[in-house]
Design goal:
- This protein has 921 residues and is α+β, with helices and mostly antiparallel strands.
- β6 and β7 form a beta hairpin.
- α3 packs across α13, α13 runs antiparallel to α14 and α19 runs antiparallel to α29.
- The two termini are 52 Å apart.
């Protein structure tokens, strides 16, 4: 009988209609913990992958801006200077070319000439009129240090009121229309100029006229610059700070040169003076708008202004003879060279950590495929097609990975707001794709043949396939080529060669594949002697380790790659730190030093020795103009106390020598033994020779010791003798070498006063990290090593947790046979040790070999010292024992700890669940 409500089907028939549960919902509900763990892994990995390129952009941008900031506005501003007015032009036209309206129009047009990405900062840009010559003024009340009259720099600059504060008086004004024949104008000066030139409000300065009476400039105000370091005041620093100019004559007499800031409308009056006024426009770049990824376009924009289409347009908008000058091109070039040398090292860190992360993601998919092997084999046996099964698994992982990756990307974008977003999105997509494909790909390879029960794939019995052999040989060729390329070309100039940056990773991967091949052989060799031991724990643990499935060797790849990257990164950091320490030591010679051009006050050594933290003090005299053999070439002569100076040289490692060999022999006319640099020893030999001192006295020396370095001097040429054998003022100390713990530079400067300059080793070392490109590369390496270590530990935990149910069942069954809890703990620990020991020893050995192979091609000088002047030649990569041993020991500690915790937890849970009937484990 048909039922109208069911469309002709009875209620009994409706109850037998099968209901199919959705695949995705069923799988997610059946293993929620695994789904959440995968989501967390993908989210964290996507966050790190997306943040890495943005962090690189941020520190490269900071490095570029810091380089431009250190160069100063005088080099980074674009300065356009017009030509002097043509004498053949009518006076009204010449005057019109210097009036504010004309200059403002040219300024607005010139700003449009600058091509992006170079952006002009209008707040620091200006225009006005400045002199070509600095006329001398006859006013005798202005100081004359050597009797020479002072000179002035009469100029106008736009928006003076917006960039200065009036301390006294008022801003200058122009009374009526100013022309070439105007006799008096008003001006202002800065506080520094007023102090140095004794200018007051109301002072009148007479600028010599050209064929007319002098131009009287009345000072109406004294100003304080609001931002003296900004481009407005520092592009022409003379506008804010006067200077003493020395003439290029033997006695070098000096005169004062200061700026007079006229009212903008008063500029035409300079046409009647000797100042030869010209218009100018200065464009200050906006440093906050500089981006390192635009470096090539920035160079193009500057080149266009200097000698390209931009210059032609500028001349069209201003004057036909306008000249453009800037140092921006040199600033960009120097930064580009530094970045090219640093970038390969950061690429090594990124590739290393990225490789470990990819291995962990692939291992996660492989472990999931192994856990569901029976389920997937059954589906294939019941007719599921391989493409259909792969598509279902892809959808299953994608529904977890895509939202997790999006969350990680969002967190990265919020955490690192600066930088390009395209690279971050691409990195996050790569993580999502890898995580989504890992499980389907592994399942497709494992279940391409339909079978319900497959053969065992124990580590000790499975034989590598031909495909695996070909893949390993291919990686071996790539790694060999990368290592050879790096050894030949080095890191300099190889920023675009990603294969070179992958060299440490490829060496680690090849070593891992080799150890995977050796691992079964070692287990088989150890199992036989272990079987002869009393007790079953050792033999059973090795047998259990040998029955690990083939997919469990994937953690070895992650561990070795992480250990190799950690060793390389740690060695880079240690090499950079050592290079800076050694360069600072070469430069200072001790923990601190005080230097003077004349003999030091007799009381100064006593004051310095009583300061807190000072443990030792060595007095030395340095004569830089000593002339051997009365020749023209000078050699620095250092007078020391052989006892204390020898101890200092021995402690510092800078040319240690036997103290007795340098002591002065008895007798007033004795030849002084000397310690010399190799170049000086080669030039003057070992025979006694005369050394003429600046006070015309002389001393005879004979070179008895040769050393490459000495604490007192960092140069390549030096002579060191006993100070007691030097005559007159040459024996009086001019430098103090201070040793101690935490020597305070402020205390030393306070004690020394103006008698000597102070250099502190710690401060000198800090100067070598003057660019974010240097300081941040160390932080990136540290973060990369930490992230790689985290992924390595995660890989180890995944491998150990994968076998946790199997181990728990084994412990339960063995306890029924009399195995104690202590024996159970030893069993699990010994079972996990072979692979952990292999990874630790192999990782340390691989890291050492990688550093030894790549060290000749890695130059750390740019990272360690950059643009700072240093006596150190080159800084090369060296092996850091801590970076080799600590991560390897960490692997052993984690493996043993996890095994011990698992044994303890299994003992608390009991054995009922593991011993229930019908358990397939």
């Amino acid at each position: 009988m048909e039922d109208a409500k069911t469309g002709g089907v009875t209620g009994a028939e409706v109850s037998h209609v099968p209901v199919t549960a959705p695949w995705l919902r069923t799988q997610l509900r059946s293993a929620p913990a695994a789904a959440w763990a995968l989501a967390l892994l993908v989210a964290v990995t996507a966050c790190l992958a997306a943040a890495f390129p943005r962090v690189l952009d941020r520190y490269e941008d900071a490095g570029l801006r810091e380089t431009a900031r250190q160069a100063g506005p005088g080099r980074t501003s674009v300065q356009l200077s017009g030509a002097q007015p043509d004498v053949t032009l009518p006076e009204d036209q010449s005057e019109a070319g210097l009036r504010p309206d004309t200059l403002r129009t040219g300024y607005e047009r010139v700003r449009t000439v600058v091509d992006r990405p170079l952006v002009v900062d209008p707040a620091q840009s200006a225009y006005g009129v400045r002199p070509s010559d600095n006329p001398a003024v006859p006013d005798t009340w202005i100081p004359r240090p050597n009797g020479l009259p002072a000179r002035v720099y009469p100029a106008t600059q736009s928006d003076l009121a917006g960039h200065a504060t009036v301390r006294q008086g008022r801003l200058p004004r122009a009374a009526g229309l100013v022309t070439t024949y105007t006799r008096e104008v008003e001006a202002a000066v800065t506080e520094a100029t007023a102090t140095s030139l004794h200018i007051k409000v109301g002072s009148v300065i007479h600028v010599p006229g050209e064929g007319r009476s002098p131009l009287a400039v009345r000072v109406t105000g004294i100003l304080t610059p609001r931002d003296p370091g900004g481009a407005y005041w520092s592009t022409q620093p003379l506008l804010r700070t006067p200077t003493l100019v020395a003439l290029p004559t033997p006695d070098r007499p000096t005169y004062w040169l200061g700026a007079l800031l006229l009212a903008p409308d008063a500029a035409p009056a300079l046409l009647g003076t000797d100042a030869a006024p010209v218009p100018y426009w200065q464009l200050a770049p906006d440093l906050s708008a500089l981006h390192a990824h635009d470096l090539d376009r920035l160079k193009t924009a500057v080149a266009s202004l200097e000698s390209g289409p931009g210059l032609q347009l500028a001349r069209t908008y201003t004057t036909p003879d306008t000249d453009v000058s800037t140092g921006l091109s040199d600033v960009f070039t120097s930064y580009g060279q530094l970045r090219a040398e640093v970038r390969p090292l950061t690429a090594v860190a990124g590739f290393g950590t990225g490789t470990v992360a990819v291995v962990v993601l692939l291992m996660t998919g492989a472990l999931t495929a192994d856990r569901r092997r029976s389920e997937l084999a059954l589906l294939r046996a019941r007719g599921a097609s391989l493409p259909g099964l792969t598509a279902r698994l892809l959808a299953e992982t994608a529904v977890i990975a895509v939202p997790a990756g999006a969350l990680g990307l969002a967190v990265a974008l919020l955490a690192v707001p600066a930088g390009r977003s395209g690279h971050a999105v691409g990195a996050a997509l790569a993580v999502v794709l890898t995580a989504s494909v890992a499980l389907p790909a592994r399942a497709a390879l494992t279940h391409r043949t339909v079978r319900v029960h497959g053969p065992r794939e124990d580590v000790t019995t499975v034989r590598p396939s031909r495909r695996r052999t070909v893949a390993e040989l291919t990686l071996l060729v790539l790694a060999s080529g990368a290592v050879e390329a790096l050894r030949r070309s080095g890191t300099s100039g190889s920023a675009g060669n990603q294969l070179v940056s992958l060299a440490p990773v490829l060496v680690g991967v090849i070593a891992a594949l080799v150890l995977v091949r050796v691992y079964p052989f070692l287990l088989r060799r150890l199992t036989r002697p272990a079987g002869r031991l009393r007790g079953v724990v050792a033999h059973l643990s090795l047998a259990r380790a040998g029955r690990t499935t083939g997919s469990a060797v994937l953690p070895l790849l992650a561990l070795l790659t992480a250990l190799t990257t950690a060793a390389f990164g740690g060695s880079v950091l240690a090499g950079v730190s050592d290079a800076r320490d050694h360069a600072a030591l070469l430069s200072v010679g001790a923990d601190a030093r005080l230097d003077a051009t004349a003999p030091l006050p007799a009381q100064l050594p006593g004051r310095i020795s009583r300061l807190p933290g000072v443990h030792g003090l060595d007095e030395v005299s340095i004569t830089y103009d000593a002339k051997p053999l009365d020749g023209l070439e000078s050699v620095p002569l250092v007078g020391v106390n052989p006892s204390t100076y020898g101890e200092l040289a021995g402690r510092s490692g800078l040319g240690a020598f036997p103290q007795g060999q340098l002591k002065r022999p008895a007798g007033s006319d004795a030849v002084l033994p000397a310690l010399a640099s190799p170049s000086v020893a080669s030039a003057y030999g070992t025979r006694p020779f005369l050394v003429r001192l600046p006070d015309t006295s002389a001393v005879t020396v004979r070179i008895v010791l040769v050393r490459d370095a000495t604490p007192a001097l960092s140069g390549a040429d030096f002579l060191v003798v006993d100070r007691s054998g030097l005559p007159g003022t040459a024996a009086r100390p001019t430098s103090l070498l201070v040793t101690g713990d935490r020597v305070s530079g402020a205390a030393l400067r306070s004690a020394a006063g103006s008698a000597a300059g102070v250099t502190v080793r710690a401060e000198q070392r800090a100067r070598y990290a003057d660019s974010p490109l240097q300081s941040d590369v160390g932080r990136i390496y540290a973060a990369a090593v930490a992230a790689g270590a985290g992924y390595a530990v995660l890989a180890l935990l995944l491998a150990l947790l994968r076998a946790a149910p199997e181990r728990a069942a084994l412990l339960a069954r063995l306890r029924t046979m009399g195995l104690t809890r202590a024996q159970g703990r030893r069993l699990l620990v010994l079972e996990s040790l072979p692979q952990a020991l292999l990874a630790a020893a192999g990782g340390a050995l691989t890291g050492w070999a990688t550093i030894r192979l790549l060290a000749p091609g890695v130059d750390l000088t740019s990272v360690a010292l950059a643009s700072a002047q240093s006596p150190l030649g080159e800084a090369h990569l060296r092996t850091d024992p801590v970076s080799l041993t600590v991560p390897a020991l960490g692997v052993l500690v984690v493996a043993v700890g996890v095994a011990g915790v698992q044994a303890w937890w299994s003992g608390r849970r009991g054995s009922v669940r593991e011993l229930r009937a019908g358990d397939a484990r």
